[in-house]
Amino acid sequence: MRRHSIKAAFTLIELLVVIAIIGLLVAILVPALSSARRQAKATVCNARLRTLGQGLVLYANDYSDVLVPGRLPKIDDHHWRTRIVGGVKYRPSFLAMMASQVGLPPFEDPQPSKTSIDKFGQPGDRQNYADKIYVCPEVPHWVDERNGSYGYNYQFLGNSRLLDDNNLTSYKNWPVKSSWVRLPSECVAVADCVGTAASFPPLQRASYEDNKLGDSKSGRSINALGNEGFNLDPPRVDPEHGEMAGHKLGQEARTALHERHGGKGSVLWVDGHLSSETLESMHYDVDDKGVVTFDGDNRLFSIDQKAEAWTEPK
């Protein structure tokens, strides 16, 4: 008798069922994996902000309780400059000013003037951060010191812009001592910042721009994400008598919290603790087009918990 061998095989229906099951599993797992990735980046962001928070405290300890300024004022193409970790730097921002306390150099080749060029072809006032501690992991390409990912509550904690260009001590709101902050646990220090794109509807916001090929005029689109990102404007801004990040950009443009971590932004408070917040929880006012207006509430930014906008001293 002949033996007939029978080979096992999938039918077309069985194969389609297997494909459908795999597709279903992928549909279930991919969002979960994406969420896990976002959460991981948020955790890393908090770790970096925690380190910056330690730097903030140590800076105040080293400078008679004075909080770090937002950025040293511009006098000319060579001043203000000061020594930071790595060398002399022209107009360093608050992040670079805290580098000694953070313990990590912000630039590989810091430059002493606006017109000097570093080894990467970047001018002294628009260098890229060299260490990732100064950059949010959700936007790792936001490395331009002007168009940074972390913004400082400069209006209330260290607005070192000059009221009078002829008076080199006429700072708008600096020095500010940490002991003046009534409730450090309820006063914002640093947070994820969206830049002046906050003044535009989400669909009109352009992609991030940095300083390219040493061109000091590049990376300045007012509607671009991250533009003037090192300045974090509070919810309420007085366009006439107050201050905002885009005060010299030819039109009213303000920055705000960036909800980049799954609909929330990371916030470092003056006392050093961290939280994840929304524009709403930080009392920003957003209109029906998604534009952040000037009409929020500043109680979480003001050192004395006042809701009104900061205005320039007379």
End-to-end distance: 112 Å
The averaged pLDDT comes out at 91
Please mark out the parts with pLDDT under 50 across 5 or more consecutive residues, or reply none: none
Element pattern in H and E: HEEHHEHEEEEE
Sketch the major β-sheet: 4 strands, antiparallel
* Number of distinct helices: 4
Number of strands: 8
Given the C-alpha coordinates, what overall shape results? globular
Helices and strands: which structural class? Answer: alpha+beta
Task: Tell me the count of domains.
Answer: 1
Nearest-angstrom radius of gyration?
24 Å
The amount of helix comes to 10-25%
Spatial strand order of the main sheet: 3-6-7-8
Strand content: 5-15%
Task: Outline the fold blueprint.
Elements: H1 12-62, E1 81-84, E2 87-90, H2 94-97, H3 99-102, E3 150-152, H4 154-157, E4 159-162, E5 171-173, E6 188-192, E7 265-269, E8 274-277
Antiparallel strand pairs: 1-2, 3-6, 4-5, 6-7, 7-8
Please sum up the structure shown:
By secondary structure, the protein is of the alpha+beta class. The protein has one domain. It contains 4 helices and 8 strands.
Structural notes for this entry:
- By secondary structure, this protein is α+β, with helices and mostly antiparallel strands.
- Helices cover 20% and strands 10% of the residues.
- It is built from 4 helices and 8 strands; from the N terminus they run αββααβαβββββ.
- The strands form 3 sheets. Strands 3-6-7-8 form a 4-stranded antiparallel beta sheet, with helices on one face. It has a two-stranded antiparallel ribbon with strand order 1-2.
- The longest helix has 51 residues.
